[in-house]
Each structure stands twice: as structure tokens, then as C-alpha cells.
Amino acid sequence: MSKEHCYYCFDSLVAYFDGRPVSPPTFDDSPFPLFVTWSTSEDGTTRDLRLRGCIGNFSAMPLHSGLKEYALTSAFKDGRFPPIDRKELSSLVCGVSLLVDFEDGDDYLDWEVGRHGIWIEFKDARGRKKTATYLPEVAKEQGWTKEKAIESLLRKGGYREAISQEFLDSVILTRYQSRKVQVTYQDYVETV
């Protein structure tokens, strides 16, 4: 895990805006499940970040194609936000999370805030399978207990019914860890 992964995400975004192909990276092309997170910062640092897009994949992907794909997908197709605009570049911070150490949880509370990301499976009122995830830093950044994080994650995943103990006991949880690195646009500019 290195800053080079984030620099490549910035390269991919800038190349897209410039209408040119991105230069191939020099780092290892090992496959990983991964997420790319774009945030903005008023002061150009990694403090007080405002989320602008975060999308990834739990299937291991070669880093070269995966980072390029998800750098652009999270910048332009996260339905929670408008697409990132070129004028935002100077305020952007890129985070890359490589997901590791997946384990089945014994129940919906079998994880640690700040250490584990959580991926849950559940069935909605119509019996359709739904999933949702939070990366390891989310619950800690929000100041959530495990219970509050699970409730929020169920709502994020589309569950609109009352949340009973019986329903919670039916949730299937997978916990995982993440290797994450972040860089600011200024960091990126200083390397090119």
C-alpha cells in the first residue's frame, strides 16, 4: 500500500478531464478488493474532510485496472453526490482502501469499531437479499456504537421496516480490515 495508488487515481481523473489516456502505473498489479474515496477539504489537508464519492468492489481486481475504474466511478457515479467537477481538483483528497483479512462474524455485533469494516447481508420485507458495507473508519469517524452503525448500515442498504431483535439475529455479518492511504491534490501536484 503506497501513496502511488492515490497518485494513480488522481492521474486517472486528470486524464479523464483532459480527454487523454492515463499513463500506466509502475506499482505491482496484484488483485485486491478495493475502494476509492474522494473527499474535499477547505484547507487542502486531510482534516475536516467532506465526502464526495466512495465506491469499490469486494471482488479482488488487478490494481491497475481496478484503481482506474473506481477512481472514475466514485468521482462521477456515486448517486449520493453530483459528479466531481474539474474546478474541485485543488480541494480533493483521494483515499485508497485495500481490503484484507475477511472473516465471518458470529453475529451482527462480532466486530470492533475503528478496526473492522463491516459487510452485511439481510432480506428486505419482500424476501430479497440486500447487502451494505461501511469501511473500517466510518463508525469511528461518526462516533457510532456498534448498534448504531448496524442500524445506519441497514438503512443505507434499503431496509425500511422496524428493526427487531429477531431481524438483527438474522443479519449475516462479514468483518474485514483495510490498508488505507490518503493524499491531497497538493501532494499529487508535487509528485508530477
Automatic annotation (TrEMBL):
Superkingdom classification of source: Eukaryota
NCBIfam families the record matches: TIGR00296 family protein (TIGR00296)
InterPro entries, per the entry: AMMECR1, AMMECR1_dom_sf, AMMECR1_domain, AMMECR1_N
PROSITE patterns: AMMECR1 (PS51112)
Domain AMMECR1: 1-192
PANTHER family linked: AMME SYNDROME CANDIDATE GENE 1 PROTEIN, AMMECR1 HOMOLOG
Protein name (Swiss-Prot/TrEMBL): AMMECR1 domain-containing protein
Pfam family, one: AMMECR1
Organism field: Linnemannia elongata AG-77
